[in-house]
Amino acid sequence: MSRLSQYFSAGRTSGKHTMPFVVILLALTAFACLSNLLLPADSVFHVSTYSITLLGKYLCYAMLALAVDIIWGYCGILSLGHGAFFALGGYAMGMYLMRQIGDRGVYGNPNLPDFMIFLGWKQLPWFWHGMDHFWLAMIMVVLVPGLLAFVFGWLAFRSRVTGVYLSIMTQALTYALMLAFFRNEMGFGGNNGLTDFKDILGFDLQSDHTRVALFAITGVILALLFVICQKILSSRFGKVILAIRDAEARSRFIGYRTDHYKVWLFVFSAVIAGIAGALYVPQVGIINPGEFSPINSIEMVIWVAVGGRGTLIGAIIGALLVNYAKTRFTAIMPDAWLFALGAMFVLVTLYLPKGLVGVYAQLMSKHSSKTPPTPPANTTASVKESNA
Amino acid sequence: MKAIDNAVGSLRETFRPDQVWPFLAPENNKVNVDKNIILYVEGLNLSFDGFKALNNLNLYVNDGELRCLIGANGAGKTTLMDVITGKTQCDAGTVYFGQTQNLLSKDEAQIAQLGIGRKFQKPTVFEEQTVFDNLELSLKTDKRVLPTLFSRLTPTQIDRIDEVLKIIGLAQQRFMLAGALSHGQKQWLEIGMLLASDPRLLLIDEPVAGMTPQETERTAELLTSLAGERTVIVVEHDMEFVRSIARTVTVLHQGSVLAEGTMDQIQNNKDVIEVYLGESEDGTATGEEV
């Protein structure tokens, strides 16, 4: 039995940082929430509601980075179109929030959102029906990105499109969706998108409590998705995914349908991106076709590269750090941000191929090499065997 | 009118009450070797841009045999393996595994699940994963997505992996990353991955390339010990090695079989001598490499 458990632990050591990381993430989330609600505004530790909303936005981006990382870092599929799934999830949530406005809009029409009246529409388009139900909107958040990813992945992976060609196709996908959503005839508010939201499930979106609650929910869902991803990727399924990344032909010749694996991982990743989008919209209060823009999707890839691709923690840390830097930088020198982003990508690619997490791991291994090396696992295993 | 009749007829055939549609029929992975022949390759033709890689190739391999394929570069050895394992589509011909399994209608993964294992010319292992994981991935299991997601290592599987590790002599390197192994060890790991999948037929492309003489000797022992229970087809350039393991040798030349027999028969075969030693009728040596 001990031998069995040894095999389990030995083969799957990647998860040893999982629990500490989740605890830190949840603790920080809880601290931020409580200090906003309980501490007086002039306290040193008080976190303003503005910061809470900003942090909530970062956490959504972290979730998105998670989605990009499981597909790029673990399976080697560089998707430059994850912004599309994010925005679709956001639009589904936006439609629900739009319907919650009811007759409080500028035109005071209880049945039609403002922009439809502006366009002179007489009735609700068919795809808006039922979106005033929260449960249906939540199903759409998962279903629409998932379905798009399934169809796209099925066509692309079955015909064995890989590498740069696939990246360009994903880029084209998000660009095409952006152009489509810019059109007023699509029925999603054209280039203004959906905005002017009032409340969610009856709670006022402007109130501190709702904002803190949304932030807390985002933190918990991020932790949950992180644990689920870690579990999936450390299962045998995850090993197959790594195998596909490193030697796809070999995986096929030992009997794995690699296209099926890639499609399902892609769908899973798209669903995470959709959820991130749905949590993002009520916090920032707007969703417009700009979210589909190819630049956004490329930025996500940079977050993951900076943090360290192929490690889930790296993706989350990368997203948080780069976005914090963006907030700071754009406040000081708005025009320089894109240059800074580009420079960061070049530097990370050249000098930190494994990202910040890779630097950390290197430091740790240097530190541990000074202490006497621990005996390798296999020798202890053979000792145990001979004792048995 | 006749066209309509035909259409109605085929419709009726499709919806006959006792008709089992192919996609509903249980997948049959049984290999029928009643006639003691495991692989039938008949009339295989394949050309790349006018170059005939395979030219009406016929090959029969007995169950449990150890067969060596030799031939010059471009003789079609690797292409033949590509066709058998589903990597390349051929222009014409049939390939049957046992008497019932038509390999040309299946893809790589299905063919692998039938029990045909393949080792590449260049050792291909999953470098970022441990030796143990490499073998775990190769085990004979249900390889669909959901069963893989929820699968656990059973004690029997661990024992099987241990057994394979002993056979390939990598028990000490169990938890090493496969990328850190030496070239020869990678070759062995790849053979081990084939063994772990418990195949009926092994296709092995140049197993001893880059191996030391000792390693070569051990590989020869391993391959000979595998034959009997399994069928092994080896492609190799190293004639010493072929001589040490082969019972039957097939010589390929320009995409078709030139000669077949024991090593001695092959070496005395007039056609083979002509092609390989280059003693054409006017007596000049063309110096083609074996």
TrEMBL record, chain A:
A Pfam family annotated for this UniProt entry: BPD_transp_2
Membrane topology: Multi-pass membrane protein
Protein localization: Cell inner membrane
Keywords: Cell membrane, Membrane, Transmembrane, Transmembrane helix
Major subcellular location class: membrane
Disordered: annotated segments: 366-388
Name used for this protein in its record: Leucine/isoleucine/valine transporter permease subunit
Species in which this protein is naturally found: Marinomonas spartinae
TrEMBL record, chain B:
Keyword annotations: ATP-binding, Hydrolase, Nucleotide-binding, Transport
InterPro entries with a match to the protein in the record: AAA+_ATPase, ABC_AA/LPS_Transport, ABC_transporter-like_ATP-bd, ABC_transptr_urea_ATP-bd_UrtD, BCA_ABC_TP_C, P-loop_NTPase
GO molecular function, one term: ATP hydrolysis activity
Signal peptide, first to last residue: none
CDD domains listed in its UniProt record: ABC_Mj1267_LivG_branched
TM region(s), chain numbering: none
Residue ranges constituting the ABC transporter domain according to the UniProt record: 39-279
Enzyme class: hydrolase
EC number(s) stated in the UniProt entry for this protein: 3.6.3.-
Gene3D superfamilies per UniProt: P-loop containing nucleotide triphosphate hydrolases
Designated name of the protein: Lipopolysaccharide export system ATP-binding protein LptB
Taxonomic source organism: Marinomonas spartinae
